[in-house]
Amino acid sequence: MEEVNGIIYVVATPVGNLGDITYRAVDILKKVDFIICEDTRVTKILLDHYNIIKKFVVINAKNESIVIDRIIERILTGESCALVSDAGTPCISDPGIRFVNRAIHNGLQVNGIPGPNAAVLALSISGLPTYSFVFEGFLPQKKGRQKKLKQLAEEERTLVLYESTYRIKKLLQELNEYMPQRQIVVARELTKKFEETWRGTASEILTGYEDKISKGEFVVIVAPLNWKERDPEDHSEPY
Ligand code: SAM
Q1: How many domains does the chain have?
Q2: Is residue 72 part of a domain?
Q3: Looking at residue 175, what is its pLDDT?
Q4: Most buried of the four, 11, 27, 60, 135, by CB within 10 Å?
Q5: 10 Cβ below 6 A of ligand 1
Q6: 62: CA distance to ligand 1 center in Å?
Q7: Dihedral sign computed on CA atoms, order 137, 130, 25, 189
Q8: What's the pLDDT tens digit per position in 16-60?
């Protein structure tokens, strides 16, 4: 039996399909004293699915400076908690890292419960080189966006981007402008009912999937500069 007292667990939860959670994650969510989450409505759907009843503390950009110290005090007295986000692995393009950082500075034990992450999942089905890759998450929305795109156009590793429903079309148009030759894989609605993977240049994807382009959540994987599809018999270098 895993003893949880005085421990903070960073728990990965599904990115769509509620079945994608580990036995250990469910066990930890049941055992801890309380759960730190982004949006109680989202986390409650997951907990109801697994018949878990638990108290919540919400952490977000607005309240974290006040809430973090209170949580740390509770853990120092021996309570335990799980940090979850709305989807996937907390602290990866999601809130929580300031809390984890403060906990470490207070000498607290932080354990991770591994599980889904949209970026790694998309990479694993992309068929593009994964030997080395760079995760950029969401590009800056305004300031610095063009500069970043120019810099990424020279990137020699596989590139992983997150994008929302509202901006995916704009992102593909920009990729078409800055890296028109590059092979791209768009993973849409991973693990969900309307899951799809689109492949081609940005221009091919924009024309081929025009009707679906503004629906869903997206991970965009971009092949490295000068990458060419390899002969399947070529095992000369790691992929
Ligand atoms: N922490 C999460 C993780 O581990 O993947 C990422 C959270 S971030 C706020 C949300 C973004 O992740 C979405 O805008 C999308 O780019 C990507 N994402 C999350 N779930 C996804 C899914 N089911 N299919 C495709 N992309 C997804």
Answers
A1: 2
A2: yes
A3: 98
A4: 11
A5: no
A6: 21
A7: positive
A8: 999 999 999 999 999 999 999 999 999 999 999 999 999 999 998
